[in-house]
């Protein structure tokens, strides 16, 4: 009893410690709010027009930034659907086999019914021992969260959360708005920063807030800009941070561009079909996080059905398969067609159609 008790205390302490970076950021943001709004705008700026404009723009950026940060922190990472978990009988079967090859044989049989295209470096089915599941494409086990995370990008200590399929858009917006926040402060604080050095600011404590505000905002701007540009490049190439470090392995071999559909479609996969939702921290990413369109699927001779097909749902139904009858949502399949559509979402009608054509469908979409 004692070891498990001490282990849970240790875990509890760890969980508290993980919040320290988030608290650190929150304190800096709170101080920056006080320094900018009270010390700079209200105390130091004399021109009313300038004051009002600065305060208005500042608050819009501040709200968007805090909203995106909040969403990145508190959106739970998505885990693989139950279809990817081993059934009780499969678990027993796997435990009985001690040889790697016969275990692989069992896993390959299960994987046949799932939309899994990626493999380990040695060509084996990707299996998570800890979660007892077949890892969907782009899914990885996070040692901090102790869970398999869909389209895992990285575990971010600054948000104390895994960045993955469910919150990658929020993370991108968090980077964008925090960069905008720092750039705006740097730009509007510049003239008062210069006044500090020419001794033309009144001798109050506000001048030191103005000084440190400029230093911290410009410093954060540089690091945030590099991180934001890097992630824009990743989105453009349709790679996660993990995939940029180690390229995904498909049945036909390593392919670092295996999930790329072209820059604009790659952005749509993360930010959604409707431009109006792009800057807002609400979920609008396409897909279910378990399967991703890949233009190279057709090269895979063992792949049961192809998202490139004109009508994968009816094709799959004709063959009597269960899961791969529809490896991709309509929104994902649309990414594979050449015409971009910035139109209103037709997800409701899609759903009706899905229900009618495939009532036995068990995949849950995020909607
Ligand atoms: Zn796992
Ligand atoms: Zn994690």
What this model shows, in words?
Its EC number is 2.3.1.225. InterPro entries: Palmitoyltrfase_DHHC, PFA4/ZDH16/20/ERF2-like. Among the domains are: about 1-75 and about 165-220, no CATH class; about 80-135, no CATH class. The longest helix is centred in the middle third of the chain and has 32 residues, at about 205-235. Helices cover about 50% and strands about 5% of the residues. The chain has helices at about 1-15, 20-45, 50-75, 90-95, 100-110, 170-195, 205-235, 240-245, 265-270, 310-320, 330-335, 345-355, and strands at about 120, 125-130, 135, 140, 145-150, 155, 160-165, 250, 255. Strand 6 (about 155) and strand 7 (about 160-165) form a beta hairpin. Helix 2 (about 20-45) crosses helix 7 and helix 6 (about 170-195) packs antiparallel against helix 7 (about 205-235). The protein has a three-stranded antiparallel beta sheet, with no helix packed on it. It has a two-stranded antiparallel ribbon with strand order 2-3. It contains twelve helices and nine strands. One zinc ion binds near residues 144 and 162. One zinc ion (ZN) binds near residues 142, 144, 145, 155 and 162.
Order of helices and strands: HHHHHEEEEEEEHHHEEHHHH
Give the beta-strand count: 9
Structural class: mainly alpha
Small ligands present? zinc ion
Question: What share of the residues lie within helices?
Answer: 40-55%
Please, how many helices? 12
